[in-house]
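thought: fold this chain, then report.
action: predict
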Amino acid sequence: MDLIDKINDLALRITRQKDMVMTEEAAKTAFVLPFLQTLGYDVFNPDEVVPEFTADHGVKKGEKVDYAIKRDGQIMILIECKAVGADLAAKHAGQLFRYFAVTDARFGVLTDGVKYLFFSDLESANKMDDRPFFEFNLLAYTETQVEELKKFTRSGFDLETIIGTANKLKFHRALMSEIRKEFESPSEDLVRHFAAKVYPGRFTQQVREDFTGLVHAALREYVRERVNDRLKSALDTDKGEAPSPASGELIAAAQVDDSGIETTEDELSGHRIIRAIAAEITDPERVAIRDAKSYCAILFDDNNRRPICRFYFGQNRMAVSVFAPAGEQKFDISSVNKLYKHKAVILDAVQQYL
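observation:
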């Protein structure tokens, strides 16, 4: 079972249980320990995962950090837990900062069981950075983030590799945050930059006010156009419009992404069938396809927390797992069209998200 499969299963569990997990202790038991197990660590082996780790620091005696992960007998990762939904700002991680400075740990993790913030000492040796270099949210993640998370698994842990990419991750995360801010409320520097390219006059107060609204609207319109172009392309393909030989080659090539994942015609047909079934109770456009190496996922609203089913279409066997309210149900099928035989349970899977 690939890591992404395990993460998807844990995410589904958290979605169903998080409203019942009210305390820090509950979060540790219900979410954090299963997360560590998902990464391959033996949570019952104190030589691998140390609960209530103590390392007295100065006048601070008897303080404990929730978990420490050992590698080759050395403390490598410290984990401090909070209750689900708690503020994970670095200012609330005092113990983690202190323990990081007096142990051999190279990484500190602050979590509420759903979000995991990964810190290191990239700016100053043996002093934990104020900003995390990586964030993983079990209720909102991408396959790229899962690939980064693999570096922290028991089998894939490589200190030099992680440290080598941590700086890039930190700056990438910071840049994404700044870009998001600019899209929500363009700064004067950004407004001035674009105004200078299209407006020949002086950048007065009135011009700044006018162009702030124009830049904001233009950014939103650009994103909207890109999304509409992608949707139109997907719909044209879905309707089976006959492409020219050249465009047909482009469409075929588009089914293989940079990671080598190939979306087959059977999977695309299966997606269309699930859409047709779902159309009885909802807008079929809400039924999305997202392929992975070991299966092809059909999601509601393209949200990995809302799985409808997964296709396991191999050369010798075809199967589908449907995520109904009562639990996952797996069926072998002889052809894609046999999906219609399981229409009732597929509708149940869609209905739970309405």
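thought: worth noting. Residues 205-238 form the longest helix (34 residues).
final: tokens above.
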